[in-house]
Design brief:
Rossmann fold, seven-stranded mixed β-sheet, six-stranded mixed β-sheet, binds tryptophan
């Protein structure tokens, strides 16, 4: 079963989410005693509530209200309060109504025998119609949300399900769908689905099966916010989505000319996008100095993916003789994650600083500071920024709902401050270039909106893609410190590195040696090869690995060992410098 959401729909309703629950091989019964008992409980709970206090009914009725329609859950709610009971049709339909009224969320349930296995959530044009349950033909409205099978509408969000696919006594397989248009948090979703599974359990038999999945955007599914990077990342689309610019050949050439050498990250399009980087170069040519600024929010150990922007930052510092501000927002992950204390983030900050110093930044030109320890210098500027950003801007920029804590809402103001600090430190308007991964540009887009009105230059960014996780970009997206099998940490010893790569690195090789020799491997999807594009500086050597692998001359295990050696050589150096860093922290740290 494949269900997708059209781009049109998501553009119109960006927070829309649909969860599918495929229930197979059930036996539909007339209602069961157990269900009746549960229904009485739900009814009793409702009778104690006031509809205005039910947050989800209030928030989620917005869609219907905009069309001048009432929200049917509100209507159901009122009739139950007036003494009516939840419907008693058949078990598979009853549990849908029960779950709707327990959690106040809209659900649909279709007999799977009556639908094809490719459905689409789409925006209604207003020319469609639908025969509702009961037989009434309904003309649909423009901008309603509909579920379509080929071109036939099965369900409308405004008017409900059609007659043709309704659950009957004979139904065995059901496609249940949860329809959320207003934002819904994962934790709430989990709760709702957990309860629904309990209901399904009550009506199941030994052959029954249940599968839950979230409906994804058609063809190119991915999410990139600074806190959530998943799925197959389409980097060109990111550039379009964030409104950043591609680093074109002209700009790259100019940078190489000024630097006196090419950086392989540029040639290989690892750094591939920017905002206002052209203005930095223009100013530099006129003899104007600029600052570099980057950061790291501590929440765990540093892995190889974190180092990519830092390696490039180090190169830029060297080539432009620029002062670097390195922000450690030790409050960020404390605010955004559930299970980290400020003591934890401080401890990780101290660890992470060793990795930062180990990059080889110039101690005379590099200042590292923790937000909580440099707040005296930062706070007033954070307030100046914060005053010019509204909650509604933050809400829509990051997709927050009203349940976010106010620290999360304020956070971007803190990440903006190092854009201002160079002007304060220099005593004159000073430009800032921020090398970072592309997901961070979102913060600086907000900084840009306010910088000029505060009397500063807009911050420029130069943006890179992510190092893929060991198991590929498939499910996990970028490398994550919380998933051991996707990451190599800077403190891993040679044996651990070898084991992780041999065991986890996703291979583009063939199943057997014979087949591999005959057909060759696929470097495009091979994580070991991809990693070499980040770590093997020598173009000629990389190219040979590519052609040998593709022709079948180089086996997957051999390719992996090339990577193991490369990473271990890199880490041996890094770990040495990390030890040096322990005794030299004071040279870098800025405190109030
Ligand atoms: N938000 C970044 C993180 O999650 C940390 C950070 C702060 C940062 N300031 C920055 C990253 C500037 C890049 C550039 O790690």
């Amino acid at each position: 079963m494949k269900i997708t959401i059209t781009k049109k729909l998501l553009e119109r309703y960006p927070t829309a989410r649909f969860i599918a629950v495929v229930a197979k091989d059930f036996e539909n019964k007339r209602s069961l005693l157990k269900l009746e008992e549960e229904k009485r409980e739900i009814e009793n709970t409702i009778r104690k509530l006031d509809v205005k206090e039910v947050k989800r009914i209030v928030e989620h009725s917005k869609f219907h209200k905009e069309f001048g329609k009432s929200y049917h859950l509100e209507f159901e709610f009122k009739s139950i309060k007036e003494g009516k009971n939840l419907p008693k049709l058949n078990a598979l339909a009853d549990i849908l109504f029960m779950n709707e009224m327990k959690h106040f969320c809209i659900m649909s349930g279709q007999d799977m025998e009556k639908v094809s296995d490719e459905l689409v959530f789409d925006l209604a044009k207003g020319t469609e119609s639908l025969v509702l349950i009961g037989g009434k033909k309904q003309e649909l409205k423009n901008d309603d949300i509909v579920l379509k099978d080929q071109d036939v509408v099965l369900i409308s969000h405004l008017y409900g399900p059609g007659e043709s696919t309704k659950i009957t006594d004979k139904t065995k397989d059901v496609l249940y769908l949860f329809w959320f248009v207003e934002p819904i948090k994962d934790a709430e979703l989990d709760e709702i689905i957990k309860d629904f599974k309990i209901y399904l359990d009550m009506v199941s038999n030994k052959d029954s099966s249940v599968e839950v999945f979230e409906v994804a955007e058609a063809s190119d599914k991915f999410i990139v916010t600074p806190w959530d990077v998943k799925g197959n990342i389409d980097y060109d689309k990111l550039v379009r989505q964030f409104g950043t610019k591609k680093l074109d050949d002209g700009l790259m050439k100019e940078l190489s000319m000024i630097a006196g050498e090419d950086h392989y990250f540029l040639k290989r399009k690892i750094f591939y996008s920017h905002m206002y980087f052209d203005e930095i170069l223009k100013a530099h040519k006129k003899g104007e100095k600029f600052y570099l600024y980057t950061g790291r929010a501590p929440s765990g150990p540093v892995h190889l993916g974190h180092l990519i922007p830092w390696i490039f930052t180090k190169w830029l510092q060297e080539k432009f003789d620029a002062t670097l501000l390195f922000q450690i927002p030790d409050e960020e992950k404390f605010l955004f994650k559930d299970n980290l204390t400020l003591d934890d983030t401080k401890r990780w900050a101290d660890e992470n600083i060793l990795d930062i110093i180990a990059m080889g930044f110039d101690p005379k030109k590099t200042k590292i500071f923790l937000d909580t320890e440099y707040a005296g210098h930062m706070y007033k500027h954070a307030c100046r920024v914060a005053k010019r950003i509204t909650f509604s801007t933050i809400r829509s920029t990051f997709g927050f709902d009203n349940d976010r804590n106010i620290g999360e809402i304020f956070y971007t103001a803190m990440q903006s401050v190092p854009v201002i600090l160079p002007s304060i430190m220099e005593g004159r308007k000073t430009r800032v270039l921020i090398p970072c991964a592309i997901d961070q540009d979102v913060h600086f887009r907000l900084t840009r909106d306010v910088a000029e009105s505060l009397g500063y230059h807009k911050p420029a960014t130069i943006l890179c893609r992510f190092l893929p996780g060991l198991q590929g970009m498939g499910e996990e997206g970028k490398m994550s410190s919380s998933v051991e099998s996707t990451a190599i940490f800077t403190t891993d010893d040679p044996k651990t590195v070898k084991n992780k790569i041999l065991k986890y690195a996703f291979s583009g090789g063939r199943d057997t040696v014979e087949e591999h020799r005959r057909l060759g491997g696929n470097p495009e999807i091979d994580v070991s090869y991809q990693w070499l594009t980040f770590f093997e500086e020598d173009d000629a050597r990389l190219e040979k690995i590519y052609t040998d692998y593709k022709s079948g001359k180089l086996l997957s295990g051999e390719l992996k060992m090339i990577l193991v050696d490369k990473i271990n050589a890199f880490l041996a150096e890094h770990q040495k410098k990390r030890e040096w860093a322990r005794k030299n922290i004071d040279k870098f740290i800025l405190k109030d």
